[in-house]
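Tutorial, part two.
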Amino acid sequence: MTHRMGPLAGTFSGLLATAVGMAPVGATHAASSTVGPSASVPLTTGLVNLDFTIAIDKFIFFRIGDGAWPTPGGTTSTVSFVLTPSIPGGPTTPVAGNNTPVNWSGAAPTFSVTPSGNALPVEVRSNAGQVTLRAAATAPLTSGANTIPLSEITIASSDSNLPAPPIPNSGTGTTVNVVGTSFANLVTQRTATWTFSYANLASRTAGTYTGQVTFTASSP
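Running the prediction step on this input gives:
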């Protein structure tokens, strides 16, 4: 899984007006002044306006795994699952290896799933408004000519405000919304832990299956 950050250009402007006796040096507006015959005569000047422009770029920071704010990580996280068979018909525990004799009743074995590195920290920060997340199948789970649907990899989030998008078998999956934290959903600062699991819905041919999923955060 990868995480990436990209600036999204945006500009906000504000207009301020101030009343002063004289225009500051460099002002683009003409100054006004009056003169009188003595210090006892009241003097009045016109108003001088100053225009201010403040540009604030939009940004999104999104990471899964290492690279906590404000430094993006450069390492792709790896989640793995090891399936261990439990052969029925006797108390004998099978030993890993080829051509190993084991007492067996002939019934189909069951497999227990042992995950490794499957709980990853996730972080989203943005000032760009509504943030959406989606997953894309970069490379399918394959071992030689055999495949496992990527949708059998599921994700549970520790925070419903930062949900995990479903992983599709191929292409790009559906999006989920991250709940903003302030300023009417314009600013988002969320952290959570995503826990990946393997559903193990069907018997598979033995082998080491590898694949890759890319997650993307975006905003209008």
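The chain has a mean pLDDT of 81. In part three we will examine how such features are distributed along the chain.
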